């Protein structure tokens, strides 16, 4: 271990490695540019090699600098999270949790009000504010620090997320024109989707979209797709017979539209949403909220 290197020097190095600009890094860590330069030179001297290539026009990481950044960043994040969690535990669960989700009635499920009320009763010094966050902006919203946690639809393989308790776990339904023969039949299966033009939401990551709507039917036939960009585009297209939408049961409960029917569809996986947060920003508040959600939902399952 190299003796004498302080946490603020590590934080300064990581800021310069991220910004690649000494002035912006100085603003970020609350130092002058000259102090940042001095700190980097001191760190380079003790390590024994240059961490940055500097010219009058640009700053770039050296191979040694990239290696150090890649090793230091996760360790720094874990240390920061541990210290934050310890501080909040010492202070108690207090403050405000900004909880984001796209389309709250669908994502949060029917028990979100009970979860929030139970949490705020248990922790009267802490408040939960629900935020409607556009789907395509969810992770940016969380990573920017604007929010504390999200309710996301699964799967989501983002490496910096902790996936907490499941909020919803739903059967699938097919939204289809009311005069379509399948609506008259009253049910559909995954093989039927190969004969339909299915809604594909362009803003949904492919990992999730392909789990929600597989590219192929069980027999291997391609499922035709019609790309849309907004939720408001979906129901008029379905009513006109231009497309169908494989969705979840709660969508059918919240979105009624003339000439659109909802029928059960078998052969598609159930769809789940879950509470999630940035691993490096795990706090006592978030842990308490996750535990409360688990408690409330377990009680609901036991009652049902």
UniProtKB/TrEMBL annotation:
A GO molecular-function annotation: DNA binding
Protein family per UniProt: Belongs to the LysR transcriptional regulatory family.
Any Pfam family: HTH_1
Keywords: DNA-binding, Transcription, Transcription regulation
Superkingdom, natural source: Bacteria
HTH lysR-type domain residues: 5-62
PANTHER family: HCA OPERON TRANSCRIPTIONAL ACTIVATOR HCAR (PTHR30346:SF0), TRANSCRIPTIONAL DUAL REGULATOR HCAR-RELATED (PTHR30346)
Coiled-coil blocks: none
Name of this protein: DNA-binding transcriptional LysR family regulator
Annotated signal peptide: none
């Amino acid at each position: 271990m190299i003796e004498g290197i302080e946490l603020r020097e590590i934080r300064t190095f990581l800021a310069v490695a991220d910004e690649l600009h000494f002035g912006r890094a100085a603003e970020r860590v609350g130092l002058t540019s000259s102090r940042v330069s001095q700190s980097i030179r001191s760190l380079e001297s003790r390590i024994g090699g240059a961490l940055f290539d500097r010219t009058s026009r640009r700053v770039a990481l050296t191979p040694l600098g990239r290696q150090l950044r890649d090793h230091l960043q996760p360790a720094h994040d874990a240390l920061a999270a541990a210290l934050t969690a310890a501080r909040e535990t010492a202070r108690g669960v207090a403050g405000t949790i900004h909880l984001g989700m796209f389309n709250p009635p669908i994502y949060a499920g029917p028990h979100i009000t009970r979860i929030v009320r139970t949490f705020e009763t248990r922790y009267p010094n802490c408040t939960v504010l629900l935020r409607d966050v556009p789907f395509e902006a969810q992770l940016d919203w969380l990573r920017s620090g604007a929010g504390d946690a999200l309710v996301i639809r699964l799967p989501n393989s983002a490496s910096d997320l902790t996936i907490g308790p499941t909020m919803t776990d739903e059967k699938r339904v097919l939204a289809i024109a009311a005069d379509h023969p399948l609506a008259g039949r009253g049910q559909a299966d995954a093989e039927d989707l190969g004969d339909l033009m299915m809604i594909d939401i362009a803003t949904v990551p492919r990992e999730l979209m392909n789990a929600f709507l597989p590219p192929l039917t069980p027999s291997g036939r391609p499922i035709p797709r019609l790309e849309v960009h907004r939720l408001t585009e979906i129901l008029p297209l379905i009513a006109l017979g231009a497309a169908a939408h494989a969705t979840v049961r709660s969508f059918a409960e919240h979105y009624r539209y003339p000439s659109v029917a909802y029928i059960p569809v078998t052969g598609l996986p159930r769809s789940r949403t879950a509470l999630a947060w940035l691993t490096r920003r795990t706090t006592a508040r978030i842990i308490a909220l996750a535990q409360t959600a688990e408690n409330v939902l377990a009680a609901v399952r036991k009652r049902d």
